[in-house]
Amino acid sequence: MLFTKPSACTLLALCAIALWSSLAVLGTLLAHIPPFLLTGLALLIGSVPAWPFYRLWRVSRAALAIGVSGLFGYHFLLFMALRHAPAVEANLVNYLWPLGIVLMAPLFLPGVKLTATHLVAAYAGFMGAAVAIVGDSWFSEKAAGTAFTGSNALGYALAAIAAFIWASYSLMGKRLSLQGRGFPTAAIGLFGLVSGLLSLLCHALLEPSVSLGTRDWMLIILMGLGPLGAAFFLWDAALKKGDARSIGILSYITPLASTALLLVATGKPLTWGVGLATVLILGAAALGSRAKPPSDGAGHPSH
What we know:
It is a single chain. The chain has helices at 6-21, 23-29, 35-47, 61-84, 87-94, 97-108, 116-134, 141-147, 153-178, 188-206, 214-241, 244-250, 253-266, 272-289. α3 runs antiparallel to α10, α5 (87-94) runs parallel beside α9 (153-178) and α7 runs parallel beside α12 (244-250). The chain is an all-alpha fold and 303 residues long. The protein has one domain.
């Protein structure tokens, strides 16, 4: 069967991660566009490739709720978090979601257990993400004195909830599949369509209206077809057929690659922080891949 080999699942996850890594650069180029408008348009565009398969969109209410909470709920809470806390630190809290996937896998998936290797790799990956995102400011007096304060607590709480929602969404898709109540990957198009419409509603209620130029539309289309479109389909297929623990550890490549691409795009030099993050994250991924043979979600080793 297609995508049953762990190596194929890893490739799918890496493709999704590569697309998500471009989001920071695209977001920077489109920073003048209100976030809910940008997300809504991109999600709608990202759903278009799945429109020809609309007959596969007949999913249960539970599946629809999980899908919309994952795509819309995650982005809504993340944007709210960025309004109530410093962007760098809020984004760091947001990147608890790969750790959440690893740690919560036994709670969502029958027969899946964590090993000491998984735990060490997961925490090493998070430290790598922290270094990649925060960089030199992690050790600065300003960051230590003003960033993680009580006045920003709401923002950090919202970012943590967003991370929990994305990790839960990622695991619930596989859980439903194992229970025989899963949704086809094509249904991600329905989730994106509904989430995009909800995002545009938030734009109408919370943000000022703006006019978009030709360049804006081209970049939005690129964002929609990539990090807010194809990446979701690839991610869903990877998690349903692969080992959630290993994929969760692998996900820490996202903030590293995103930071590196952003530095290259802005012409800034790569820092020692990026180098250290590279060692930590790649080491975590290698360590995670050497863990005990992954479970297929039902307690049996996959082959």
